[in-house]
């Protein structure tokens, strides 16, 4: 069991969500940064549901020895008077308190334990989906049941997805409705991630006029997916997130590919974002490989070139003041 001692706003339990319910009006939901779940899975050999915090501080007390993985947007982490490295899995003793504070890098951070949190399942998932009134935010005093398992101290080579950058798009059914000049202007525009954003989506700001299709007011409502870049009536783009609506009548100029959606959701307010169209084949080829995990502390017997390594540093004198 893990007890939540203190907790900032909008912290929830998330996993990979509930696929297959779009026709019933329920978006898949789940973690905003799916790559962080992949990294936690690699670190723990299967992570299950974990805690997602959108830059909110949180303190957790462990009632038994447990291995915890920390992935996604880096936070400042301490256990007592010692700091823990990010993108690692480490074992905490019973009674220890894990204290996480935002660092200003990225948006969504994740805390997983070996075997996953065993909170209530709804429709095959433990993920909170607040827009659909499934689950709730975590609060101080919550006690989260966990699986009985432990893991190794390891680190993962995390992909670079913080700070904005280029996002690759594939066309939507409405892409062809935008005039060629509008598409070219869209691709040439440097957008800024607005302060307004959440798990439903993030607003982008830009210089100049908005973007519109021809005959935009006559469009029928259509299906909506996470990653869609949807234009509002004034032509302002939003990148839709995991809890987006399932249908809408505003045109979608393109869809951010799954490999780049974590970069879009992890962009902090003020981050610069640009877009580029790719083919479906290129989108499939862009899927990231399985995360690479290495031991956090290596056994000397596993280092064949041990004698070539610098094992100590600094020189002291036997005649120095501290000798």
Automatic annotation (TrEMBL):
From the UniProt record, which GO molecular function terms apply? Answer: ATP binding; hydrolase activity
Q: Please list every transmembrane segment annotated in the UniProt record, as residue ranges.
A: none
Write down the Pfam families for this protein, in alphabetical order. Answer: CT_A_B
Domain Carboxyltransferase, first and last residues per copy: 23-293
- Which UniProt keywords are listed? ATP-binding, Hydrolase, Nucleotide-binding
- What range does the record give for the signal peptide? none
**Name listed for the protein in its UniProt record:** Biotin-dependent carboxylase uncharacterized domain-containing protein
Q: Which organism is it from?
A: Jannaschia faecimaris
